[in-house]
Amino acid sequence: MLTRMIWPLVFGICGMAILVSLGVWQMQRLAWKEGVLADIETRIAAPPMAVPAAPDPVADRYLPVEATGEVGDDFIRVLVSQRRIGAGYRVISPFETEGRRLLLDRGFVRVADAVPAAPAGTVRVTANLHWPDEVTRATPVPDTEANIWFARDVPALARALGTEPILLVAREMSEDEGALTPLPVDTSGIPNDHLSYAITWFSLALIWMGMTLYLLWRIRQRTI
Questions:
Q1: Are residues 115 and 26 in the same domain?
Q2: What residues have CB less than 8 Å from 27, skipping those under 6 apart?
Q3: 53 belongs to a structural domain
Q4: Residues 167 and 90 reside in one and the same domain
Q5: Residue 58 Cα distances to 129, 131, 188, angstroms
Q6: 17-39 burial, b for 16+ CB within 10 Å, e for fewer?
Q7: DSSP conformational letter for 22
Q8: What is the pTM of this model?
């Protein structure tokens, strides 16, 4: 009987060890990802500084900045969806500051609402630099006739509006934009599924253990 049970037992122990190790690895990844998210949140909330002359899309992503300038009349609407609100648009406009022309994400407006006119005169903007990674193979081509885009493709937006490929995502503006609500940079869009993966691997380990014990019981019953 012991000879017939040894290999199923070894196979079961090895399988459980592999599944448990995968679960432990995902828990380690979870701790790493939480550290990354905490670091990003700290960077987002840091005191704002002037917009760098040549910001780096990697090193300066999420950098808090403050700038004073004028919002251009042109704009591009980027289709998005807000939880508990529904579909709407991010409004991207040119922003002229200190002899530079940058992109400004002014915020969110519902699909049914008209885009408010740009504030007149000089405005002060507190924002974060961002280069969103939103374009995929499935992203539709912009509908230029309807002025609807489907992702914040910073280089393409810059070409369309004649600006530098630098996007400021507004947190606060000195002028009330009415129907426009700022959508500041945060970490909510960064996936962190490692806990669910860990639970899946640990659950499979328990199932594997149960199947192994059942198989051993069946072998024992046949030999009695």
A1: no
A2: 194, 195, 198
A3: no
A4: yes
A5: 10, 8, 19
A6: eebbebbeebbebbeebeeeeee
A7: H
A8: 0.79
